[in-house]
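Long-time lurker, first post. I've been practising inverse folding by hand and with some scripts of my own, and I keep getting stuck on stretches where the structure tokens seem ambiguous. Below is the full token string for one chain I'm working on. Before anyone asks, I'm not after the true native sequence, just a reasonable design that respects the backbone. If someone could post their per-position residues I'd love to compare against what I wrote down in my notebook.
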């Protein structure tokens, strides 16, 4: 019995550590490996990404730290536009999300085109990338000219990404997601698919 309780306590330590780090974005500055993989266990199924630091190092580093510390766990795929892209990355806990609103990432040159399955961070305004991430459903080369820099791509389970629930389109309001988190999304948009767990797999 003692061994069981010891296991439970030790298993809880990494999760608690990640939650503590998410309160302080400036503490998450670990350099990502040159290439790393991320497994996404979602309500729609499992898919895998491969991230390349030499494509966009700032984006790769930021994504690495967020995944490693559990930021994306529980996040909803709140914007899904068939034939274009799927978007996620607003934390389901408003208190955590508030810590990251101003934690922006500097822009980088586009080294890889926005092809189907490629992943990039939001960058509508200069140096405005945050925690939000997009996956291209198709080749969206027009995004290259707008400075959207992919840092990785889906290497397995793209059929899972394709079937992420899209019935709500762009209805969820980002302002309300940030203010109310998953409470708002679960009540108003109960069919949204979500990330159960994102894990670094080097």
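-- Answer (accepted) --
I ran through it position by position. Result:
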């Amino acid at each position: 019995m003692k061994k069981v309780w010891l296991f439970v306590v030790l298993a809880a330590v990494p999760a608690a550590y990640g939650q503590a780090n998410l309160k302080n974005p400036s503490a998450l500055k670990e350099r990502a490996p040159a290439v790393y993989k991320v497994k996404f266990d979602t309500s729609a199924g499992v898919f895998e990404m491969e991230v390349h630091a030499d494509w966009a190092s700032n984006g790769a580093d930021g994504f690495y730290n967020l995944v490693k510390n559990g930021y994306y766990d529980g996040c909803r795929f709140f914007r899904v536009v068939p034939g274009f892209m799927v978007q996620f990355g607003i934390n389901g806990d408003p208190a955590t999300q508030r810590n990251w609103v101003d934690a922006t990432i500097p822009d980088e040159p586009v080294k890889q085109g926005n092809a189907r399955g490629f992943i990039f961070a939001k960058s509508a305004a200069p140096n405005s990338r945050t925690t939000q991430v997009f996956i291209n459903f198709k080749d969206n080369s027009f995004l290259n000219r707008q400075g959207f820099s992919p840092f990785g791509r889906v290497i397995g389970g793209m059929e899972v990404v394709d079937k992420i629930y899209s019935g709500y389109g762009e209805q969820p309001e980002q302002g309300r997601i940030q203010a109310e988190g998953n409470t708002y999304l679960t009540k108003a948009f109960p069919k949204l698919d979500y990330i159960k767990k994102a894990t670094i797999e080097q």
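A couple of notes from the structure itself: Confidence is low (pLDDT under 50) at residues 4-17. Residues 2-21 form the longest helix (20 residues). Happy to go over any region you disagree with.
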